[in-house]
Design goal:
By secondary structure, the chain is of the alpha/beta class. 35% of the residues lie in helices and 24% in strands. The strands form two sheets. An eight-stranded mixed beta sheet has the order 1-2-4-3-7-8-9-10, sandwiched between helices. A two-stranded antiparallel sheet has the order 5-6. The two termini are 20 Å apart.
């Protein structure tokens, strides 16, 4: 395992390089350090060789939200809708640097994430054709307007593979917005399948915060098959 840590635009990046320069590249937006944990779990599965770029120090309510939306509760922060700006940072600065460090052209580039980072991964398909495989684990598809956005807009590219998952207890909440998680995910699942996209959907045991790194590893492994 070749790991290199660096900082770009105040984001903390950890690049785990594969042996071969042309191996697939996974872009993973992380909340804490679940990226490394997911990467190590993938190594145990003997998956094909791949580059793994974990991006941290994100302001989730700003960087990963596609448009402004009210906070989920009195204690939370409003979502300020900086997703498009952050995606531009990935495409114009982070990806070019990653390719330079890899010293090659990846076989394909994936984007993956958990919770709001999973929502952002799906949103990216509508803004760029760079990512050909996407994994959205417990992808916050309760976000106001996301279901309508996905159905009313065209993707820049139809992905080769799309992976969606949720926890089986995520909809069992009293919060009226969060209750829509499973319904919205399964509704969009039908929509994506009707478009001819190879889509895998899994319901994992537990609530939103359970086995995050393992669920991330499962989704990423599916993209590498």
């Amino acid at each position: 395992m070749h790991r290199e840590d660096f900082t770009l635009c105040d984001y903390k990046l950890s690049l785990f390089r594969a042996e071969k320069a042309d191996s697939p590249l996974i872009i993973f937006n992380q909340f804490s350090d679940e990226g490394e944990a997911a990467f190590l779990d993938l190594q145990k599965e003997n998956s094909k060789d791949f580059h793994f770029l974990a991006i941290g120090n994100l302001n989730w309510e700003r960087d990963l939200s596609p448009w402004p939306a009210p906070a989920l509760g009195k204690e939370g922060d409003d979502f300020t809708g900086g997703g498009e700006k952050y995606l531009d940072c990935i495409l114009s600065k982070i990806l070019p640097l990653a390719k330079e460090k890899i010293n090659g052209v990846p076989e394909f580039i994936c984007i993956a994430g958990y919770s709001l980072a999973g929502l952002f991964a799906l949103y990216a398909l509508y803004k760029t054709d760079v990512f050909t495989r996407v994994a959205s684990m417990s992808g916050s598809l309760w976000f106001p307007g996301i279901k309508e956005f996905c159905k009313e807009n065209a993707m820049k590219i139809l992905p080769e593979k799309l992976y969606l998952s949720i926890g089986d207890k995520e909809s069992k909440t009293r919060h009226p917005i969060l209750q829509t998680m499973q319904e919205n995910t399964e509704d969009l699942l039908k929509h994506f399948k009707s478009m001819g996209i190879e889509t895998t959907y899994e319901v994992n045991p537990g609530n939103h915060f359970q086995d995050v790194n393992l669920r991330c590893a499962k989704g990423i492994l599916e993209l590498l098959q």
